[in-house]
Structure formats: C-alpha cells, structure tokens
C-alpha cells in the first residue's frame, strides 16, 4: 500500500470570536489517502492555517523537508518508522511547536488508517486494552463576557454535567492572566468563591478539577491564591503558571498539597521529561494531536507510568480527538480520566457537528470503541460548511 494524497481541511466555526479563549472554534483535519482506497483521519489543536503550511510547504534540503513531501509514496503501515522520518526530516524547522503538532495530526491519521486496514481498533495496535471502559470528565467553559454572568453559568453548567451523568467535572476559572476570556475580570478571592460555590452545588461525590489557564504570574502569587482551595478536595489544579516556569511548577508541588497538572500544549516526550523531572507535576496531560500523535503520546504515557504519575489526556477539539484520547486511555493503566467537551455544554458547533458517530458517554463511562481505527466518521456536509466558513473569514482575520 502507498500513500497517494493528503488533504488538509481548515475549518472554522461560524460563531468564532477572536476575543474568545476556546480553541474549539477552529480546526485542521487531515485525510491520508492510499492507492488501495483505505483512508485515515486525524486532527490537531493548533492554528489550522499554520499546521496546513507545515504539511503542504515544500522543502529543498534533507532536514528541512515538508511533511506531505516526505509521506507521499510511502507505506502507511510503517507508522512508527514514518514518525521518525518526519521528525528527522523536518528537524531544522521542527523538533517542537507547530511542526510537531502537525505531525501529530498525520500520525493520528496513520494509526486510523492502519487500524482500518487491519480491521482493529487503534488501542489494540497500541498494546491492547487494559480497562473495560473510559471515564470522561466534563470540561466546562461558558463563553460569557462578565464575571457575574460567568459565576451564574459555571455553577449551572456543573450541575447540568452532574445531571448528564458525569462523575467528574473541570471548571475553567480564568478571570485574570493572559488567557482570560474577553471581558472576564475578577480577583483571586472571587476565584476562590466561585470554586467553593461549584463544590457546594455538586456535592462531595463528583470529582472536581480546576483549570486556571496560566492565570498566576509566579509561584509565590499562586501559592497565596490557591491556599484556601485545599478545602475543596480538588483532583488537580491545571496550568497555574506560565508553561516555561518549570522551577515555579516544582515549587508549587513541594509547598502545597493540591496535585498540579500540566502538559496540554507540549510537543514530544522531551518536553514532558522536563515537565516531569524538573517541573515535578503530579498529573500529565498529553494532547494526542499536539504531542505528536499516538506514537509520541504512548511514549509519554510510558515515561509517566515509570514515574508513577497520573495521566489525564487533554483535548479541546472534535469527536476525532475524543476518540483518540479514548483509544490512548484504553491502553494506558494510569490514565484516570479523559477530557470531554459535552455536546450539551459547548458553544462550538464545529465541536458538536464535525463527526457523525462520535463516542458517547453513558452512565458516566465511554464503552471501548469496537470499530476499526479511531472508529469515527466525518460528517461531510458539516466539513464542507466549516471549510467555506474558514475560506470566507481569511481576509477579515488577516486584517485583524
Ligand atoms: Mg487547560
């Protein structure tokens, strides 16, 4: 079998807002085609126009090649060897960042393709299932433009998530810092109050996580702000500090008891080794697309398990990423939960409509996928609609 063509679909939700925090309002989906008619799909969480360029751009020398250029004509079944080929052949431009995130979409698609060709779910080809089902947590981020409205919405959404059957929920509490949603402003004391209100509303039986999305400038500020949160029995606090402040992360883990989680943006096992061994986090959050695909995500999980750390994969995209995280969790014993944007509690129609048969949570669990590959299909009508939206928006966005 040979790879004959790679399609890159850049997608945009019609309700997009350049002041919004959520990255579920755009997407890149890749489709890898072969001469035998088997295809694979993948996606990644990075600026989709940049990812498309990483894939489609040509290169003129041995370690500055384009990703599609290296894949066309290759045997798609040699997935791990192709990862090395892409990593080495793009090293002068890549090794980290957008090029690795783009490799992640391609590697995801190659795993999907190989699973379909062999008639097996991805997790069976990643070492086999180690659990009977996967536990998702509901990720909650109402897109409102005042803290008063946010406070009302987040408590309501947490209750609705509990009502839908989720056993765990994560509230995005980001009224300050560089990733704050447009219009949201609140003090650290008000952050504490809102987390307390959510905990009181959902009761002690629901696992609760908090994501502050890089809200605190340094460890000293963070330590002071989150000290009262010990009373809320949090499973973790996610990304409290800027990504590169690894010494600050280590200080948080050594000077207070709440588990610290990070890793959503990282690329390759090498960045995770720094996060684990220097940053001393308790919970690692590889995003299958961003980290470099299943091939690299599995390596990260193995390294985390050697260190007896908890794994909770990040995802903020469509049903493709939900499926990818579910397959990774199916084959990873230390994976406690996977992130999950519930259809009912997500503003992005792109997130809700792109996949026609996404994995569903029933009674708090996602059953092991049975179909070959990722086991999900693109909704072609929605794909074309979101592509048109992205094409139409380019001139407006370029002016911004
Ligand atoms: Mg996050």
List the helices and strands and how they pair.
Layout: E1 3-12, E2 26-34, E3 39-44, H1 48-56, H2 67-71, H3 79-89, H4 97-118, H5 122-125, E4 133-134, E5 136-140, H6 147-164, E6 168-172, H7 188-202, E7 207-211, H8 219-226, E8 234-238, H9 246-255, E9 260-262, H10 268-277, E10 283-284, H11 288-291, H12 294-306, E11 310-311, H13 319-330, E12 338-340, H14 349-353, E13 361-362, E14 365-367, H15 380-399
Parallel strand pairs: 5-6, 5-12, 6-7, 7-8, 8-9, 9-10, 10-11
Antiparallel strand pairs: 1-2, 2-3, 4-14, 13-14
Helix pairs in contact: 1-4, 3-4, 6-7, 8-9, 10-12
The protein binds magnesium ion.
Structure description:
It contains 15 helices and 14 strands. It has 400 residues and is an alpha/beta fold. The protein folds into 2 domains: 3-119 and 378-399, 2-Layer Sandwich (Enolase-like, domain 1); 125-367, Alpha-Beta Barrel (TIM Barrel). The strands form 3 sheets. An 8-stranded parallel beta sheet has the order 11-10-9-8-7-6-5-12. A 3-stranded antiparallel beta sheet has the order 1-2-3. Strands 4-14-13 form a 3-stranded antiparallel beta sheet. Helix 1 (48-56) crosses helix 4, helix 6 packs parallel to helix 7 and helix 8 (219-226) runs parallel beside helix 9. It is globular, with a radius of gyration of 20 Å. The model has no long low-confidence stretch (mean pLDDT 96). The structure holds magnesium ion. Magnesium ion (MG) binds next to loops. Magnesium ion binds next to loops.
